[in-house]
Specification:
The protein is mainly α and about 80 residues long. About 80% of the residues lie in helices and about 0% in strands. InterPro entries: DUF2164 (IPR018680). It holds the Pfam family DUF2164.
């Protein structure tokens, strides 16, 4: 698996959301460095679980769509004989 990277704008928005969450939900202010460190920790420790779940969901959806394609192809078959 290749490393997942984000643009600086995406990182900035995530850090901003973490800081806002700490402020509004925990009544605690944290700086940008602390928020980015926390984001990196969650990405490394919890991120793979979300990534794998996304892959499983995509695989299930693909399987369902391929079954639908199979049914459509069967409907296109011409009678032989």
């Amino acid at each position: 698996m290749t490393e997942i990277t984000f643009s600086q704008d995406q990182k900035d928005r995530m850090v901003s959301k973490i800081k806002a969450y700490f402020d509004s939900e925990l009544n605690q202010e944290i700086g940008g460095f602390e928020a980015e460190f926390l984001m990196d920790f969650f990405a490394a420790e919890i991120g793979p679980h979300f990534y794998n779940r996304g892959l499983q969901d995509a695989q299930q959806l693909l399987t369902e769509k391929m079954e639908e394609v199979g049914y459509v192809l069967q409907e296109l078959e011409k009678p032989e004989g």
